[in-house]
Design goal:
- The structure is a single chain.
- 29% of the residues lie in helices and 44% in strands.
- The protein contains three helices and six strands, in the order H-H-E-E-H-E-E-E-E.
- The chain has helices at 6-25, 29-32, 55-68; strands at residues 35-43, 50-53, 73-82, 86-97, 100-113, 116-124.
- The protein has a six-stranded mixed beta sheet with strand order 2-1-6-5-4-3, with helices on one face.
- The radius of gyration is 14 Å and the shape is globular.
- The relative contact order is 0.21.
Length: 132
C-alpha cells in the first residue's frame, strides 16, 4: 500500500491531536474547524450508526460523545497506517462511562482532501463495557 504524502500525514496528525483533545476535555471546535464542507463520518453504533453527512451532524455527534464521557476519554496511539489519502490511527482508549471503567481498542480513519478532513470512520473493538 502506498504511503501518505508528508502533507496528508501532517494534516491527519494535527486533526487527530484536536480529536484526542476533544475526547479528553469536550472542546471540539479545534477538530471541527479542520473538517471540509462536505464532511462525512461513519460510526458503528448508537443514534449515529452508519454514514452521516455534514459538519452540523458531526458537531451533534461529538457533543453526544462528550456526554457519555463527561470526565474525558484518553487515547494512546498504538500504530499508524497510511495510504495516499487516508491515515488510520489504531488506539487504546480509557475513561469512565456512566461512572464505570471503560477501555476499548479502535481504529480511527481520517480521509484528507485539500488539507482538510473530508471523512472520518471509527471501528470499535467493544462498544460498551458497563458494569464489568
Amino acid at each position: 500500500m502506498p504511503e501518505a504524502s508528508v502533507q496528508t500525514l501532517r494534516v491527519a496528525e494535527a486533526a487527530f491531536q484536536a480529536f484526542a483533545q476533544g475526547l479528553a476535555c469536550g472542546e471540539w471546535s479545534p477538530f471541527l474547524d479542520q473538517l471540509s464542507d462536505d464532511f462525512t463520518f461513519w460510526f458503528p453504533a448508537g443514534p449515529f450508526k452508519g454514514l452521516n453527512h455534514g459538519r452540523e451532524k458531526a458537531e451533534a455527534f461529538f457533543e453526544l460523545v462528550s456526554t457519555h464521557f463527561p470526565e474525558g476519554l484518553t487515547l494512546v496511539v498504538l500504530q499508524i497506517a497510511t495510504s495516499p489519502t487516508t491515515v488510520i490511527f489504531e488506539v487504546r482508549s480509557e475513561g469512565l462511562m456512566a461512572g464505570y471503567p471503560y477501555q476499548n481498542q479502535a481504529a480511527i480513519a481520517f480521509d484528507v482532501r485539500d488539507n482538510k478532513i473530508c471523512a472520518y470512520r471509527e471501528y470499535l473493538g467493544v462498544v460498551f463495557q458497563l458494569g464489568q
